Amino acid sequence: MIPGELKYTKEHEWVRMEENEVVIGITDHAQSQLGDITFVELPDAGKDVKQSDSLATVESVKAASDIYAPLSGKVTEVNTSLQDTPEMINQSPYGDGWVCRVDVGDKTELDGLMDAAAYEEFIKGTSS
Amino acid sequence: MELIFERSRKGKIGGTLPLKDVNEEVKVDPAYLRSRDAQLPCVSEPEVVRHFTRLSNMNFGVDSHFYPLGSCTMKYNPKFTEKIALLEEFTALHPLQPQLLKGAKLTQGALEIIYNLEAVLSEITGMAEYSTHPMAGAHGELTGVMMIAAYHRHKGNVRKHILIPDSGHGTNPASASIAGYEVKAIPSNADGVMDLEEFKKTLNEEVAAVMLTCPNTLGVFNPHIKDIADLTHEVGALMYYDGANLNAIMGKTRPGDLGFDVVHLNLHKTFATPHGGGGPGAGPVGVTKELAPFLPVSRVVKKDDGTFELDYDEPLSIGYIAPFYGNFGVLLKAYAYILLLGKEGLIEVSENAVLNANYLKVALSKYYDLPYDKNCLHEFVLSVSRQAEKGVRAVDMAKALIDKGIHPPTIYFPMIVKEAMMVEPTETESRETLDHFIDVMKYLAELAEKEPELFKDFPKTAPVGRVDEVKAAKDMDVACLNDDSL
């Protein structure tokens, strides 16, 4: 259910390392809590982001929520297909629903993120 | 139901135009002429009357139904205020009149009402001065945050952030960021109020203000409010009070006494004027003496001889934020409401609002989860989590309530509660109405247990059934306006 090879944040983003870049998205848990996603506001490619900065915004039928940058770096590519098919995040949060790729500056920031087991514990703790 | 444009047939006419009395010799600049005919429906008069009568029958409002929409204070709007607002002495006033040379003389009554309303709102909230100009709560917020920015600029402070608890109204971060600030969300603690330790960690001299509603959206009064205000002031930042929840505390405490520097009120909530669709809103904003120079212009001032006039000569003012003086008819209704109730009446409003909410909370907590089980003030937040395990989520419960003739409470807000359902009965509901609501909620909880699949089809009796919310949000089609076939 929660992919073992990814890293996770408390804000329910996931991160996949690919050489110097990371791919970023939101977790299955996040998409199910948000409900049907109707709009995604993506960052511009080339944008410099700091860890915990707002990176993108997702709007669902329930609410608008920020996606925060799990790591600092430069946005290299955004998933523009989300503009027409934001529901991709609901359908495939770890696959075609990825949000953007970031060229990471400080790789030590990765160490502060949760692994799959820790994230699973984390969501258990928050669901009352 | 058909749109009126769908009833349109070429050649049908529903009215008679008066004889033309304009001089056709006058040449109109072609830039101002239409390039094509106005897109008006061709319908007969009875069709128009029936169409709008049908529409009015579909209306779902506080005059027809119980409306416990949390954070919105949908109290009954007493009709005597409408009568007063319809007096010709007010409706026939032109808003430019007081701006004419010596025009203030002709509008003393209206100016006095604005002046007096500002004074009573100051008294109720413990602020020094008010502006009645903002047209809605969020407009009041933006005005307030702009004054905070003007204050810091004037002092030479460089401030970047506004702190807002994660249970705050969505308009708070929106207003702060439109005014140019970066928002930092502070998590809530287990008691449902802003976590004091997290707050202390985030508070520094880059913070311009802290925006709070107290009681907050869980209906919980923050016991550390005085500490928060003191700490905020120590770093030179200001306290902003979102007055959406003022209905809980009138006559019991005042934002000014708690240490708030800027307050916006929603007259359409606390002071019983109509909400949005039922009439324009009004979001007056009040400030401490220190911030008064930054209030928008114009200001109504009382001269030594007891007469009133408009003052535009305020060099530190943030300027104009609205045409004229706010929604005057709404201000008038709120003023009439306050005068009728008086001090004792307003205290009773808050006491009964709190009593009604607690009555419902205790009764409903038998059937629904209550994540923050504390004594609430004017509203409380249930969670439909227990029912969601059976597949009945808050949105399904809301749709079922529509079938039962009750406006659903606010759902999925605040976001710190899963499957949230935020209930605010207000003081204007009778014990019988509250008991009926409890019966319906109990029935629906039992139905969710036994036959959860039924909920997918609700509402069944409303003019419009289950709406495709994704389609509604994604494919907006503003009816026919660009359709040349009509």
Describe what you observe in this structure:
The complex is a heterodimer of chains A (about 130) and B (about 475). Chain A is α+β, with helices and mostly antiparallel strands and about 130 residues long. Chain A has a single domain, classed as RNA polymerase II/Efflux pump adaptor protein, barrel-sandwich hybrid domain (OB fold (Dihydrolipoamide Acetyltransferase, E2P), Beta Barrel), CATH 2.40.50.100. Helices cover about 20% and strands about 35% of the residues of chain A. In chain A, the strands form 2 sheets. A 6-stranded antiparallel sheet of chain A has the order 1-2-3-9-8-5. In chain A, strands 4-6-7 form a 3-stranded antiparallel sheet. The radius of gyration of chain A is 13 Å and the shape is globular. The two termini of chain A are about 20 Å apart. Chain B has 15 helices and 12 strands. Chain B is an alpha/beta fold. Chain B folds into 3 domains: about 1-10 and about 35-60, no CATH class; about 80-340, Aspartate Aminotransferase, domain 2, CATH 3.40.640; about 345-475, Aspartate Aminotransferase, domain 1 (Alpha-Beta Complex), CATH 3.90.1150.10. Chain B has helices at about 45-60, 80-85, 90, 110-125, 135-155, 170-180, 195-200, 225-235, 255-260, 265-270, 330-365, 385-390, 395-405, 430-450, 470-475; strands at about 130, 160-165, 180-185, 205-210, 240, 260-265, 285, 300, 310, 380-385, 410, 420-425. Chain B is globular. Chain B starts with about 45 loop residues before the first helix and ends in a 12-residue tail after the last helix. In chain B, the strands form 3 sheets. Chain B has a 7-stranded mixed sheet with strand order 1-7-6-5-4-2-3, with helices on both faces. The chains are: A alpha+beta (about 130), B alpha/beta (about 475). The interface of A and B includes residues 65 and 128 of A.
